[in-house]
Design goal:
The structure is a homodimer of 506-residue chains. By secondary structure, chain A is α/β, with parallel strands linked by helices. Helix content of chain A is 41%, strand content 12%. An 8-stranded parallel β-barrel of chain A has the order 2-3-4-5-6-7-8-9, surrounded by 5 helices. A two-stranded parallel ribbon of chain A has the order 1-10. Chain A has a two-stranded antiparallel sheet with strand order 11-12. In chain A, helix 6 links the parallel strand 4 and strand 5. In chain A, helix 8 packs across helix 9, helix 9 packs parallel to helix 10 and helix 15 crosses helix 16. Chain A is globular and about 60 Å long. The N and C termini of chain A lie far apart (51 Å). The interface between A and B is large, with 65 and 64 residues.
Amino acid sequence: MGRIVEVTDVILRDAHQSLLATRMAMEDMVPACEDLDNAGYWSLECWGGATFDSCIRFLNEDPWERLRQFKKLLPKTPLQMLLRGQNLLGYRHYEDAVVERFVDRAAENGMDVFRVFDALNDLRNLKTAIAAVKKSGKHAQGTICYTVSPAHTIEAFVDMAQGLKDMGVDSICIKDMAALLKPQPAYDLVKGIKEKCGADTLIHLHAHATTGVTLVSLMKAIEAGCDVVDASISSLSLGSGHNPTEALIEMLEGTGLETRLDKDRILKVKEYFTNIRPRYREFMSEFTGVDTEIFKSQIPGGMISNMESQLKGQGAGHRLQEVLEEVPRVRADSGYPPLVTPSSQIVGSQAVFNVLMGKYKTLTGEFADLMLGYYGSTISEKNPEVLAKAEAHAKKPVITGRPADLLKPEWESLRKDTEALENNNGSDEDVLTFAMFPQVAPKFFKSRPDGPKNLGKDPVKKDAAAPAKAEGKSDGTAKPAAMSGPVNYVITLHGKEHKVTVAPGA
Amino acid sequence: MGRIVEVTDVILRDAHQSLLATRMAMEDMVPACEDLDNAGYWSLECWGGATFDSCIRFLNEDPWERLRQFKKLLPKTPLQMLLRGQNLLGYRHYEDAVVERFVDRAAENGMDVFRVFDALNDLRNLKTAIAAVKKSGKHAQGTICYTVSPAHTIEAFVDMAQGLKDMGVDSICIKDMAALLKPQPAYDLVKGIKEKCGADTLIHLHAHATTGVTLVSLMKAIEAGCDVVDASISSLSLGSGHNPTEALIEMLEGTGLETRLDKDRILKVKEYFTNIRPRYREFMSEFTGVDTEIFKSQIPGGMISNMESQLKGQGAGHRLQEVLEEVPRVRADSGYPPLVTPSSQIVGSQAVFNVLMGKYKTLTGEFADLMLGYYGSTISEKNPEVLAKAEAHAKKPVITGRPADLLKPEWESLRKDTEALENNNGSDEDVLTFAMFPQVAPKFFKSRPDGPKNLGKDPVKKDAAAPAKAEGKSDGTAKPAAMSGPVNYVITLHGKEHKVTVAPGA
């Protein structure tokens, strides 16, 4: 028996967020839970990130109820969530009491492991959430957003890890959302943290698969002593998702390292999601291969499609290449923020503006805020000329303090506003839902009694347990898994042409 | 500058053989050749394997002419082929003079690196071809087919490598056609060969990507000293194909190892094939993810679909699982052959017979021949009971000598038969084409003057430089890239049901 490598599966959260636009309905996850819970995972990521937003915006599903259901369905395995620090699951900074209340309610409803990150890696944006998790007695995981820039040396990341340790985190996550972490830096980073922060520092590596190299990075990180790694069962893996859990298990054979995962359980879950996945074809990411251009542009795939649609909206779809080249310059001017929600959108939009209107002729409000410190501090100095423009544009001063320190107590007013909404249930959870999504929550509360919607097509039938590969073969029959939405054809029938719309699977 | 890792790209041969059923037309490869030739590869695999068969059977293209074209288009980079030892590119053993003539003609027409393998790893089936390559002054690469069984220890493979070295090969290929080679065995095997056969022994690793772990295996093999690795440019990679060249380049950063590949050239080739690939959608392999079940069954994907169609032909499609469990037993009974053409088909068919008719109640002629030594020797002893049945069935004795030693000189009769065919051009090349494909060659010679066919749909237009992802978006329109062959629907039109066949791209 060698050293055990622990595994977190992200199939219930980040996998479908990355591959199926976060649209998976709870009822499609329920049947997999028993096997997942008994497979031997360190934790199961199942909440947070974009799932909260998606639940109330698209699925008419109460995310707090989803959490309580997971707690019942997964009694043996710690539940894990992704929390955007002082932003919670929303898109602005919240006052500390709101952050504390959120963590308290999440813990009370069943959350066990809180992975807390900040888009700028500003530790001050993590401290309230981390302290709240500690207070709740749950597992506080402090997160380093991995990125590449002249300032982001191994030493800088190791220092950040020490900063997180000093806050009292239970573990440290290296979060590689854009699949930029190559094998050697993965090795060096884990080694560096273990050396500086102590060999008993629990390190958890989260990597996407987009560039095709990160399974190798997991291997090298494990060789350097990484304790826990994220993966996703193969039928919801790869592309802009994650490395397949089964490949992770197999690659360790003979190394003296092993997981404690039950392959038979995992095979059952794999086959289950093989059948579920095609039902969400209209939400499927088209990207299924690898993209190593990200290393050059450092622009994650999701960000490129955002920029493309912004450009097309301005009739400038042909200028994408210029924008891709502008992004790294805007990023340098703004002090090399990691590119992750919301910094990726802020930098990307400004790059579009620079190309269309001239360099910093027009600033977005968010970009000015980023320059002036209203999202937190960045690792590098900002370009002073651009900073001056931001001050002139926003008519606000530069701040160097913690952004949330500017906020006034807001819980009571949020409660009052929530209580005025039709169908609110009077709970703190509803106040938090409203706080994070003030536009969407009122509509959601109103329609909540109708119950959750399943946006998957062709609900799976009783006999659907057979692997999907049996569905359509190379004998020329249809491949339902590979079609997307209704298709329009002109067909000829009895010598006459007809326009016909055919729904796949019909 | 660290140690250089050399790379062979298989995009012109095994990539489209694995992913597009070997259907790519020469004219669709021509535009990529200049960039490929200048990218800095150790070699470009572009001929042999199933391409010869596919050329004459499906593409009405003279494979010898393809080879001459490649030689002109790729003047700077060695051309590489896959040769099935004494089977050449056909499916039976050929007499030595035919093997020698084939190698001579291939060398003369432009081939530089001959990767020679035998499905049973029987060195006697390689020796004539290897000697002929040496005689032609070209690069002779001896191949170990990697497989997993109780008999296939690292030591056994290392001994085989030494056997190849003793034959005078210029390099040794580890051929992992089913993606079974895990990282630690990859490391141990390369290390073992370097230790036993000398540190200057050139080792070349060929791995498919099917199980998802082999990019890690390439990394570990490289760490152990592997000199050359096979990869395929990303737009024709992964699934049952190969690891992406771009990911290989990137994963080495910071390790002190590097390739000498030109990323800009490779990006151009990637973009080119991104546009070409969808045109071959009807031949595309459906499998794009990873399959780690192969580790358990050791049955490559292509073999499973063969067995499935055999079973369905017998109305026994539901018995696939039994057959999958029978295959390892048949393999053990027959002395643990690697499962690769033709042994995979022979073992698979016998497993189907065993399930349908009772254990060894009926033997296929090929299985009896395999048992009796007519394909060569296997690493382990065969099951004596099954061997007795094979003798009784085939009414032939066991042989222990080299199968080709039983063959009489056949060149002159092959020449005479070829010269009797309409439109033969009188060349040795035509005799060899007829020798390998006696059924197909006569039809091919007849239709050869019509020139090559391109089976790709929607020939690429001038403006096709835009990435293919623009073709079908998540707006609900069809994704042409994902459909395969005609589709049968029942549609309702003016209140009446009709059965309609719709061809994709219509």
